[in-house]
Amino acid sequence: MATQAITFNYFTGINKNLFSNARIQGSWDLNGVFSNQWLTSPMTSFIGEDGCPGFTTSINLDVSGAGRVFMWGVIVDGPAGTDIWAINTEVNDPSVTDRYCSFTFTGDGTGLTQQFYLTNKRKLGANKFVTGTDTGLKFSVWAPNASKVEAVFGTANGYIDILGNGIDNTMPVIGLSKGDNDIWASAVVPNFASYEGKYYMYRITNAQGRILYRTDIFSRGLVGRGNIDPESAAWDGTLATLDGTVGCSIITDPDKISSEFPLPTNRAPVLESAEDFWKNEFNPAKPIPTNIGDIVIYELHVGALGNTPGVPGNLQDAVALLDYLADLGINAIELLPMAEFYGNIGWGYGDTHHLVIQSSAGGRDEYRYFIRECHRRGIAVIQDVVYNHYDGNANRAEWQYDSTLPEQNIYYYYEGLSANYTDPNGGYLNNGSAGWSPNFREPVVRQQFISSAIFLIDEMHVDGFRVDLTQAIHRDNTLNSSPYWGVTEANQYGCKLLREWGRTLWLVHPQAMLMAEDYTGYNMVTTPASANGFGFNAVWYADFFHGLVGYQGGPQLLLDEAPGDDRPLDLAGFSSLLYQSQSDHVVYHINHDNAGANTTHRTVVTAVNSAPLVGATRTCAESRSRVVFGLSLLSAGTPLFFMGEEIAAQKQYTYDDFINNREDLIGDKTGIGKFMFGYYKDILAINKQYASIRSKNIDILAADNNGRVIIFKRWLGNEQILIAASLNNQAFQSYTLNSDSYRLPDGGWKEVFNSDAAIYGGSNTGNGGAVLSAANGTITMVIPANGLVIFLKV
Question: In this structure, are strands 113-117 and 3-11 parallel, antiparallel, or unpaired?
Answer without folding.
Answer: parallel
